[in-house]
Amino acid sequence: MISGKIAIIFGLSAVLAAIGSSPKLRASTKIASLFATHGIPFHVYKALYRFVALSNVDPTTCNDNPIGRNACYLNGSERDANLEEFNGLEEWQKSHVHEWFVLLKNSDDKIDFQMMIEHLIGQDVSDVLSSLTENEFKAAIGAAERSLNDEDLVDDELSPSFEWMDEDKDGVLTVDERMHPVLEDCSTQAQDSVVCDVYAQLLRPWLPASSMSYDEFKAMIVTEGASAHDEVSAQFSSLF
After folding, report:
1. What is the C-alpha separation between 206 and 213, in angstroms, rounded?
2. What value, to the nearest 5°, has the Cα angle with vertex 193 and ends 191 and 196?
3. CA count, 13 A, side-chain hemisphere, 155
4. In angstroms, rounded to a whole number, what is the distance separating the alpha carbons of residues 187 and 37?
5. CB atoms within 10 A of CB 27
């Protein structure tokens, strides 16, 4: 059943490539293809929440070699270790990060990762992440991976985002509330309504359809989507 959806998405990607579509549009459909094949890369999304702490680490503490949320992994001296960690990710996760970069990069071939994180999770990060080349972007993801290996996410890192996305303050997140930050970030950085429409329409079906409480939201992020897998599978089974 789901294979039919995969075929449609791969077919769309092939058509767009054949007609010479823009790199950003091709990136959005490539990301959708990765969704169809592997699901949402919660492992990478999980890293976004850690950047709030990592980007605001007190540099005077670095000589003590702190770990976890307090680690100095975003320091330039950690670049090689961060890239090594990034390169250890599964190939499809690395592909997703690359296409993410292509979709959102600016005319100077850099990504404003600070803006991206603030748009997606509604929390402040420092400008150390504001202008990154693709390798710097990958190294930043590797830094978060290392930090998460030290220490998992905690409520203080997740609850502010849940409260920010909960626009009507009813204690649950609808699909629309979860999609809104994605659309805002895409429209701001990609600056192409067609790209964002394609991205949104092909991403939305892979999100759990029911509203989510904070505990469900936390479980989805911390378990890297495992808690949402059954619902999404059932949702797609009903479509074919």
Report:
1. 18
2. 90
3. 3
4. 25
5. 22
